[in-house]
């Protein structure tokens, strides 16, 4: 099965992201607004047990940290994905690093740029329009992150949460 | 905020449900296939802490149980919702009862009929067609359930998982 690890921001931030995603993100219906902590990876049931154990350890060692959004940015010219830029605080960068060490799959295709996608797969003209207007806007969104989620992907491409990992708590 | 509690069945059962939901369920994009354990309820942040504590207790006291699906059924004539009928094993009925006691909101609009919705809000003719063909079919789906999830609802009607509660584990 295909698994992924993400942070789902609180309702207010998700609602803000969805107000754009509804029109500009074809993945709108497949997953709620999220910050990807680890790119999708394949695992079988035996791997999964070990991975869940490791994720519990990671969560226990992680302290809650701030998630701050002040502006929109884009991966252009690599792709025309537009996203809410999440400030790369130390704890978030360390958590991303930690999720690629130990028994966890270590492949990393990209440098980690913390973001919440709000538009993707736009035509060139649409991209210019949307990004042109959004890049002028400032945002003042902030919350404390205290958990991440392990999800698996269904045949239709949608993601279901398998387990929540709460920071600073040791599960037996 | 509006919260709900559900079981997400394993991938195979979700994929089966989605093969129908895609065509027949307008809620297809709002939530993965699920078995509702507790109807949506309102709670503020203070309530939530207490509720999460109580849900951890409930999960710790619950033992994994089988989820079995053999056929499709319908809520007709009350509504024309069609669903995968989930066998009402004792542990599942007790879990539903327990989620309406103690500090948890106790309102119950309906008698608990364990089900995974695959079609709803169909026209009368479409309902007759779809149910007519599905009610002849037998299913042989079974898994062990060892967790439930607390979700909150976004402005667009979609649900995000807030926390997973694994049976038989005491979280500190």
From TrEMBL, chains A, B:
The keyword Nuclease does not apply. The active site is at residues 34, 115. A motif (HXTX 1) lies at residues 34-37. PANTHER family: PHOSPHOESTERASE SAOUHSC_00951-RELATED, PHOSPHOESTERASE YJCG-RELATED. This is Putative phosphoesterase SAMN05216244_1402. A motif (HXTX 2) lies at residues 115-118. InterPro entries: 2H_phosphoesterase_YjcG-like, Cyclic_Pdiesterase, YjcG. The keyword Nucleotide-binding does not apply. Keywords: Hydrolase, Ligase. Belongs to the 2H phosphoesterase superfamily. YjcG family.
């Amino acid at each position: 099965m295909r698994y992924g690890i993400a942070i789902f921001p609180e309702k207010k931030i998700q609602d803000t992201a969805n107000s754009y995603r509804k029109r500009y993100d074809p993945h709108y219906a497949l997953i709620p607004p999220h910050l990807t902590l680890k790119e999708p990876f394949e695992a079988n049931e035996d791997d999964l047990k070990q991975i869940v154990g490791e994720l519990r350890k990671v969560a226990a060692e992680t302290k809650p940290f701030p998630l701050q959004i002040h502006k929109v940015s884009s991966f252009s010219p690599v792709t025309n994905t537009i996203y809410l830029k999440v400030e790369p605080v130390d704890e978030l960068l360390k958590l991303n690093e930690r999720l690629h060490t130990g028994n966890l799959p270590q492949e990393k295709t990209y440098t980690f740029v913390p973001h919440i996608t709000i538009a993707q797969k736009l035509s060139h003209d649409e991209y210019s329009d949307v990004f042109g207007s959004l890049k002028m806007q400032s945002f003042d969104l902030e919350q404390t992150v205290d958990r991440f989620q392990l999800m698996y992907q269904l045949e239709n491409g949608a993601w279901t949460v398998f387990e929540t990992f709460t920071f600073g708590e040791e599960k037996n």
